[in-house]
Amino acid sequence: MIRVIIERQLKPDSFDEYATVIRKAKKEAARKTGFMGGELYFDLNDNDKIVIIAAWDTLENWELWDKSEERKVLTEELAPLMLNDETITILKSSR
């Protein structure tokens, strides 16, 4: 199992629009093989910094989603709401 950490710095006052898009993203991801769930967190020191922690069964299934047309479209919808590009960190649970 892997965890995918996605960090996004939103523009001020853009969370409501962001939330609409991210709900669509979670629904799309849930249809993909290997998606095990995801949670959204706010940085305690910066409410415009969003951290998503998603669980995937394998790196390969995450990569299929990451490269999918659905995610590309959703990422393009999110881009105007963010101050910079998202950062992604992939963690595995054991060696």
TrEMBL record:
InterPro entries: ABM_dom, Dimeric_a/b-barrel. One of its GO terms (molecular function) is monooxygenase activity. The lineage of its organism: Bacteria, Pseudomonadati, Pseudomonadota, Gammaproteobacteria, Oceanospirillales. This is Antibiotic biosynthesis monooxygenase. Residues 2-91 form the ABM domain. It comes from the Bacteria. Keywords: Monooxygenase, Oxidoreductase. It holds the Pfam family ABM.
